[in-house]
Specification:
binds fe (ii) ion; globular; Hypothetical protein af1432; mainly alpha
C-alpha cells in the first residue's frame, strides 16, 4: 500500500463507496476457479440470483454469441459458454453498473473494445485463453473507475490531455492523485479476489515488461492499444504498433482484421447490455 497515497488508502481501507460486485457473483467466480466444482453446483449458485440469471440468459441468446437455438436454462448456458465463458459473462453483467456516470461511460466502451480485442488476439495467436483474456481486458482499467468516482473533474481533465506515451500519463496521475490507475486497480481486484493472472493484467497493462511470464498481460497490452486507434489509417496503426507495442508483443497479428472484428463484436455487446 506504500505507493497509494493517504486519500486512496483510506478509501480502500474503509470500503467507503468502493465499487463492488454482488456476493453471488464473487461466489460464482470462485467456483469457476475451483477444479472440484461441477456445472450443477455452479448453476445452483447463479440461479439463486434471479436478476443475474435473467441477464446471463439474455447475454447467451444475444447476437454476440450467435447460437442457433434459444437457451432457456442456466445449466445449458454454462455448458454452451464453458466455465471460462460463463466467468467472463458474469463479469460483464455485474461490472456494467460500475461504468455508469459521465466519466465512466466512455471508459465502458473502451473496456468493451479492449475485452473483445483481447479475446480475438488470444484466439488468433493461441497464446492464452480467449474467455479469460476477455475478462482481463474488460477490467484492465478498473483503477480508473475509482478515479472517476472520487475525483471526477481531475479524471476528466487528464482524460482530455495528450501524452507522448503511457508512462507520461501515469506520472501525471501520480502528481494529481498520488496513485496510478494500475495500482488502484490491482488493490481493488485483490479485494474482489479475482484470479492472479487478471490482477497482473490490471497491474501491468501499461508495463508488460514487468510481468514477462504472463502471456495474458501482453495480450491486454496490445488490445489496449488497438482499442484506441480510431481516426488512424491502417499504415499509421501498423507503424505505431511496430514502434510501441511489438517490443513487448513479438507475435504477428493481422491488425486490420483484429480491429474490424473488435468493432463488430463491441457493437453487438453494447446492444445486448443496453437491454439491461
Ligand atoms: Fe490503462
Ligand atoms: Fe485502457
Amino acid at each position: 500500500m506504500s505507493t497509494v497515497n493517504q486519500r486512496f488508502a483510506q478509501i480502500l481501507e474503509n470500503h467507503q463507496d468502493l465499487p463492488s460486485i454482488p456476493l453471488v457473483a464473487t461466489r460464482a467466480l470462485q467456483m469457476i476457479d475451483d477444479p472440484t466444482c461441477n456445472i450443477n453446483q455452479l448453476g445452483a449458485v447463479i440461479s439463486g440470483d434471479p436478476s443475474l440469471t435473467a441477464k446471463l440468459l439474455r447475454m447467451v441468446n444475444s447476437a454476440y454469441f450467435g447460437f442457433s437455438r434459444e437457451v432457456t436454462r442456466i445449466s445449458e448456458a454454462i455448458v454452451m459458454l464453458g466455465f471460462s465463458g460463463t466467468h467472463s459473462m458474469i463479469l460483464g453483467v455485474v461490472s456494467r453498473p460500475l461504468f455508469k456516470g459521465i466519466a465512466a461511460e466512455k471508459l465502458w466502451i473502451h473496456s468493451l473494445r479492449c475485452a473483445t480485442a483481447s479475446s480475438i488476439i488470444a484466439r488468433d495467436t493461441g497464446i492464452c485463453h480467449p474467455d479469460d483474456s476477455f475478462s482481463a481486458g474488460l477490467l484492465h482499467d478498473l483503477g480508473k473507475i475509482i478515479l472517476a468516482r472520487h475525483c471526477e473533474k481531475d479524471f476528466l481533465r487528464i482524460e482530455e490531455e495528450q501524452f507522448a506515451d503511457d508512462s507520461q500519463r501515469l506520472t501525471r496521475e501520480m502528481e494529481v492523485f498520488g496513485a496510478t490507475h494500475p495500482i488502484l486497480g490491482e488493490e481493488l481486484a485483490t479485494r474482489w479476489k479475482l484470479p492472479t493472472v487478471m490482477i497482473k493484467s490490471i497491474r501491468y497493462h501499461h508495463s508488460p515488461e514487468q510481468a514477462p511470464e504472463e502471456a495474458m498481460v501482453k495480450v491486454v497490452f496490445a488490445a489496449n492499444f488497438l482499442a484506441e486507434t480510431d481516426g488512424l489509417s491502417s499504415e499509421e496503426i501498423q507503424a505505431a504498433f511496430e514502434k510501441n507495442i511489438s517490443v513487448n508483443f513479438p507475435v504477428t497479428l493481422n491488425l486490420d482484421s483484429v480491429i474490424e472484428r473488435m468493432k463488430i463484436k463491441t457493437e453487438e455487446l453494447i446492444k445486448t447490455f443496453s437491454l439491461f
